[in-house]
Sequence to fold (665 residues):
Amino acid sequence: MEPFKKLTSVVTPLNRPNIDTDAIIPTEFLKRIERTGFGQFLFYEWRFDEQEKQKPDFVLNKPVYEGSNILLTGSNFGCGSSREHAPWALSDYGFKVIIASAFADIFFNNCFKNGILPIKLPEDIVQQLFQKINEHESFQITVDLEKQTISDSQGFQVIFDVDPYRKECLLKGLDDIGITLEKEEKIKQYEGSYIVI
Amino acid sequence: MSPKTIFEKIWNDHVVEEEEGKPSLLYIDLHLIHEVTTPQAFEGLRLAERKVRRPDLTFATMDHNVPTKDRFNITDPIAKKQIDVLYENCKEFNITLAGLESKDQGIVHIIGPELGLTLPGKTIVCGDSHTSTHGAFGALAFGIGTSEVEHVLATQCLQQEKPKTLEININGDLPIGTSAKDLILSIISKYGTNFGGGYVIEYTGETIRNMTMEERMTVCNMSIEAGARAGLIAPDETTFAYIEGRRYTPKGEELTNAIAKWRQLATDPGATYDKTITIQANEVVPQVTWGTSPGMGTNIMQSVPNPDDFATKTEKEAASRALDYMGLTAGTLMQDIPIDKVFIGSCTNGRIEDLRDVAKVVKGYSVAPLVNALIVPGSQSVKEQAEREGLDKIFLEAGFEWRESGCSMCLGMNSDVLAPKERCASTSNRNFEGRMGRNSRTHLLSPAMAAAAAIQGHFTDVREWKFK
Fold:
């Protein structure tokens, strides 16, 4: 996994609550057996019309947000299906940080496995950030995982929480499976002491 | 020893390693897999030259993208490839597979319990969010992503943060004409789609105790729509009676011993939850959703809500957007909304009791002239049972289509999709934008309500139904 340390980017605002993983990547694109190439299908029905033409009004299609690595969005982002295709699509498209006041549990987990940093902030700060984008559409922030800060060039700064273990894994790009496999003895010991009915 | 909840007991029983500041390493007793969320996991194993640690604790089926008619003729080459890859992976890694040709094939959350794989006290995972269904047996069961599928395949363990506990205590009798589906939909409509976030829900109370296993599965199934990864119900005599005699369940003395152990799982008196809410079941009215989130629901007596009546700006905008997408006008009576399609099936409501509910309503009636209605049994075993009881004849005579088992229109991954702007009364679990195909409009309701809507051509109050 690619390590994540720090980045500065324009923030893409997608101010809707309860965005589900079907919206992030519709089911019709889940038949592929690869892990890559899902970015082209991200928010497909919102980005493209029935003739597969870009909808100019949709925020991701605005030139100012092209190449943005940070998505600012509504509460309960990533709800619904457990499909990891959702973080694959977000990451492949270019989003490495997602900011919301709440995330769905499975999606939140899936992000960390794919080098995406999901950041939970209080709703009033999320709204403050949306307001800043309203005032200045190419509003930029810097996300520093090491220091756990989000800041802009005008002196705005907030500290965010992140689980220390997940932080370490992201900073170092660690492979969970490799870590668990090192505990082979403990797993064996457990298997010896416990009978699955 | 301090009193414990069922969740804490199962959790503690499965901790392989616990270290301050790190997620726990949890042992997994049963890993269910299907075609959609596993190809990349097997590929990961191959690339790292890893094996499946416990093929004997892994069980596979194909359900999400399988056709529900002419099922051996998969015309979509990408879907076919995904199916073929599961056959190949199961063969290569020695995993038991209920493939298309198997009598055991069906929706993964329906066949687990049917085969007796799902048992109390187990930890169960699957790369599918509706794994919460299995919690009905007093198993700790939750959905995982593909990276975690790969992790479980390789290690039979999962790194997990310990969730909090939420008790939903439900008492009173569900009124005649309402069902487990109405109960869970009304809870989600009242409390929203994220109130269970970070929690494992335990459903308690006499309403739950009086439910059949299939009803309990419907309730636990939709825990994820409340934001909770898992829903749990303590096992009791109803559970043990369901389990006995199934293919993979313990037999004879082994079963007696297992039951004795399972009886100890129930939450101890005096154990505490992080949060408790209480529900009166006798107040439940048949539910229908009007929006694009399972929380956007109301009951059949009501009308489509006005976005202005919502409390916050965010909610007003979300409601307004949902009405626009759904093609609905505020103030329209729910009973006046005409439908184009009816879908009966899914891991929420694709079991035999659901089909019996439908048959009771539609017997002697015909599907409304402009409505196309589809019944997709949850498994081959449900299909066979329904046919033994002659339910298929009732359905066919009423004008329903009777299909082969699979997830079908619930997620619109095979060819069972709605045309743009078509409106469907569905017994499934999600009414998201595009869920049943681009610009599809989904209304969630119970099997009996869906059946009544199919006959009338619009939503109708099944409590007033004249059964023939």
User: Anything to note?
Assistant: The mean pLDDT of chain A is 96. The domain at 6-193 of chain A is CATH 3.20.19.10 (Aconitase; domain 4). Helices of chain A lie at 21-24, 44-47, 85-93, 105-112, 123-135, 164-172, 176-181, 184-193. The first helix of chain A runs from residue 21 to 24.
